[in-house]
């Protein structure tokens, strides 16, 4: 319990349901942390040395408030990553294009979306894929931080959605976005041992 508490974030005492993304994240990442194998998540992370790891991380608690299911920080922002985990949810989060969200879009996201994307604003579908865009923007906000989306292989539908969104981003940012299939990581661990 002390070790889990040292990981920071707001850990839950239990899970509302065992098929939650939070339960999946804890069960998936804890062995990788204990065995010091987070580098297996992506070839891009092979040389990274992580000095801070944790669950349920809110990077900007004052204004933006995006919460990642897991994060790991290296010496530099470019050697760090945050993870959005999807398990039983049917889709990525969306929001309504109401006055509050339009204000937040104009204050926080608009400038970053212009810098991040290579398509016209009409093609963004920002509010339809609100959660994905908020996550991707962190590669700009945190100067090169890697953003990962992790889910099991049976959620191929989510990969297709991410592929259609990531292609709308400028090529210079695409290497910082990672779609990680949990089954592939597990098979790599099994094969390597």
Description:
By secondary structure, this protein is an alpha/beta fold. 37% of the residues lie in helices and 16% in strands. The protein has six helices and five strands; from the N terminus they run H-H-E-E-E-H-H-E-H-E-H. The protein has a five-stranded mixed sheet with strand order 1-2-3-4-5, with helices on both faces. Helix 3 crosses helix 4 (130-141). The protein starts with a helix and ends with a helix. The model has no long low-confidence stretch (mean pLDDT 87).
Question: Would you identify the regions where 5 or more consecutive residues have pLDDT less than 50?
Answer: none
Distance between the termini: 28 Å
Assess the beta-strand content as a share of residues.
15-25%
Number of strands: 5
Overview features:
193 residues, alpha/beta, five-stranded mixed beta sheet, 6 helices
């Amino acid at each position: 319990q002390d070790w889990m508490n040292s990981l920071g974030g707001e850990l839950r005492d239990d899970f509302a349901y065992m098929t939650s993304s939070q339960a999946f994240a804890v069960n998936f990442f804890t062995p990788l942390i204990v065995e010091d194998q987070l580098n297996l998540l992506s070839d891009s992370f092979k040389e990274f040395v992580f000095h801070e790891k944790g669950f349920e991380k809110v990077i900007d608690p004052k204004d933006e408030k995006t919460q990642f299911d897991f994060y790991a920080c290296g010496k530099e922002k470019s050697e760090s990553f945050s993870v959005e985990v999807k398990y039983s949810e049917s889709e990525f989060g969306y929001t309504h294009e109401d006055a509050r969200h339009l204000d937040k879009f104009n204050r926080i996201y608009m400038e970053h979306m212009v810098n991040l994307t290579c398509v016209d604003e009409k093609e963004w579908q920002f509010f339809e894929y609100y959660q994905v865009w908020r996550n991707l923007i962190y590669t700009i906000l945190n100067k090169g931080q890697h953003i990962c989306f992790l889910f099991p292989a049976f959620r191929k539908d989510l990969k297709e959605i991410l592929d259609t969104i990531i292609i709308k981003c400028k090529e210079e940012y695409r290497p910082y976005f990672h779609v990680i299939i949990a089954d592939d990581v597990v098979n790599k661990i099994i094969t390597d041992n």
